[in-house]
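Z., the sequence and structure:
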Amino acid sequence: RSVYDGEEHGRFMEKLEARIRNHDREIEKMCNFHYQGFVDSITELLKVRGEAQKLKNQVTDTNRKLQNEGKELLLAMEELRQCRLQQRNISATVDKLTLCLPVLEMYSKLREQMKSKRHYPALKTLEHLEHTFLPQVSHYRFCKVMVDNIPRLREEIKELSMSDLKDFLESIRKHSDRIGETAMKQAQQQRNLDNIVSQQPRISGGKKSKKEFSASSELEVKNTSPMSEQDSGILDVEDEDEEEEVPGAQDLVDFSPVYRCLHIYSVLGARETFESYYRKQRRKQARLVLQPPSNMHETLDGYRKYFNQIVGFFVVEDHILHTTQGLVNRAYIDELWEMALSKTIAALRTHSSYCSDPSLVLDLKNLIVLFADTLQGYGFPVNQLFDMLLEIQDQYSETLLKKWAGVFRNILDSDNYSPIPVSDEEVYKKIVGQFPFQDAELEKQPFPKKFPFSEFVPKVYSQIKEFIYACLKFSEDLHLSSTEVDDMIRKSTNLLLTRTLSNCLQNVIKRKNVGLTELVQIIINTTHLEKSCKFLEEFITNITNVLPETVHTTKLYGTTTFKDARHAAEEEIYTNLNQKIDQFVQLADYDWMAPEPGSRASEYLVDLIGFLRSTFAVFTHLPCPFVLQGKVAQTACMSACKHLSTSLLQLLLEAEVRQLTLGALHQFNLDVEECEQFARSGPVPGFQGDTLQLAFIDLRQV
């Protein structure tokens, strides 16, 4: 700062230059000091390179000398090897000549055994000859015939045993259906026995029936079988029921060929080939078994035969697994089962989707449960089948909904939409037994009397309960908890109420020929059905034993359905009344240029007022006074008056009326007074003061 503030710029620059020169000299000194060391290092490296080249030349010379010296040694070693090889050959020749006579004797014995068809002893002789003697004498010319014949004999034995195996495979393919049927019958008997035991845990005394004794003996054999803890007894236990003897798999199929063939191939060292062939053929058979017939969905027998073949296939494989050592293993069977499970589920999904009969779907579900229980008894995992049954349950619900849609349509179409007359106590109790209705005043009335609702109320209520029973049937034996069953029933019932029944009610309400009296009766009916929803809740609770207060319990939405139907009926009443009013107003023919008014109101308006009076009088005589005194009748009356007022005002103000006389206006005034008189007369009780007259106040003002 001082340099810039003063006038010493030149002096400062001189000092700075001097400082720079000093630093340059110091840098140069330092470089000169280290330069000599760098030069020395380069010199030493050059010396090392020369020494390395000399060393390389010496190594090359040494290697060449070593190679030259080693050639003679290699030649000597090769001569020594040849001498020793000749010595070993001479010794081996003496030994093989000593063995020639036993070989010839054993070969003669083999020929005799083959001639007498004693294949297993011949196989043992062949094995002993081939593995013990022939390897020692195989260089001689006379042994060539033996060596050539041994593979042919081995193949002959293999072909004979393979022929037996093919017959066996064909046999089990034919009998798989019957074996599976037997297994499923025994599973059904076992399940029935379990149900009896669970219902009667203790039986004091008495003799066992033949079936009970047979089932218990089968259980004992199963639990003590050394081969398999899951063997259900089909393959090695005969049914002791003399009247209904159920044959086992061994009675239908002889398993000895597969055992003999396996043993022969094991002795021949081709066990893996045999196992591979057996598994390959069984896989092919599995694919054929798992291919469902195209018309399987038409009858239950089609499904039953399909399941029998699958069960029979895996019963045989399970028996082979536990009676042979390694011909099939658990991993192989599990792989087959995974393939079978996926294909079976896919086939069931496809074919069950064609079924529109809920009874057939229910029977199919029971058959699938029996199929799953049977295979589960053999240790196969069947959880995916039960998961698939939950999918079929949705389809079952849809078929039920379609069926009940037709039931509801028939009930609604056949109903007369008039209160149910009751002539005696028996009929009264019958209807009260069908539908939960309590009315102290109605009970006090003498016979004959009428229920406020029409016949479709108890019929619809009974059908809803039948639907719930139908849903409950499907949930049996699915190993579901009470909560899951309850949730399933409630969801299906909600669909029935909110979709099926709601659509049927809406269609009835929207019909062209429906009358006002019928609409009012529908309102009465839906009100009573709405009140009955709590009884449906109790009904479901009683059959599932799940309280409505339980967490995650689905609630019934029936009240919403019936409220929506009631509101639709109310709107239809209002719309119909307004349409009738429009039809009367279209008859109006005012002479806007009339010099004098008439002596009374227009004829069309008198007829219209008479129609409205008679309509609301009909409401008054209905057996349910709340319709008259409540919101519906009042709203209908107010809506009709407002619509009439608006229609008359439009007549007066329409563009075509360009001028009018005082006489025409007085005539129009007579019509308005007629409307006001109708409003003052109180066609529907419940209006306060001049409330109804206010509908015409705008018309009066104009």
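Residues 181-194+250-380 form one domain. The first helix runs from residue 2 to 5.

Let me know what you think.
H.
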